[in-house]
Amino acid sequence: VCLLRAGERGWTQPITSRPITPDTCCNVTSTLTALLCLSAPKGVSLLVPQPNINATVAQNILLSVDYSCRGVATIEWKHVSSRGTTKIAEWKSGNYVNISTGYKDRVTIFENGSIQLLNVGVRDAGYYFVTVTEEHGTNIYGTIVLNVYEIIYEDLHFVAVFFAFLTGVSAILICFMWLCNKSLHLFQKKTHKLTASNTEEIELETIEC
Length: 209
What we know:
Blueprint: E1 2-6, E2 12-16, H1 22-39, E3 44-47, E4 52-56, E5 61-63, E6 66-69, E7 74-81, E8 84-92, E9 96-99, E10 107-109, E11 115-117, E12 126-133, E13 139-149, H2 153-208
Parallel strand pairs: 4-13
Antiparallel strand pairs: 1-2, 3-6, 5-11, 7-8, 7-12, 8-9, 10-11, 12-13
């Protein structure tokens, strides 16, 4: 295949193009693969199995992650909410562990990068960011959203009071029915006695006559 290119002196010069061969395709593929490898994080990965967690007040919550890298990584956890950003903990396996003062007695760390929060409250709701940093400076991030709900004791209190009220009313009705039944029985007994007395008087009058 020949292509014509205009020369500087008005004449044309034939240029022969190179055909595309399998070797050329392999070279292009190798180049693209190398570029992708350069742009991807080297030797570090992070898995967040449960990115959304719902909890109630006073529960113990596990913020579960799992990372892997070729060297020793540094793990950092932060809490972000409407009140600002708070650093929870940072550690490097086998080297050091730093836990913030506010979380000193409430956080347990694990080798796979997970942390456990003890006795969570409404203030603990928000976003939890974990950063895994490889020895060579490569970072990878993960996020977990925690929702914390209060237990509504008012509803339980209302149900308990209503149940107690129904129990009291039932007891009063039972007592009232018992009294009515007792009064009716006494009235019937008294009426029976009066009827018997009247009958005896009539019989006596008849005999006297």
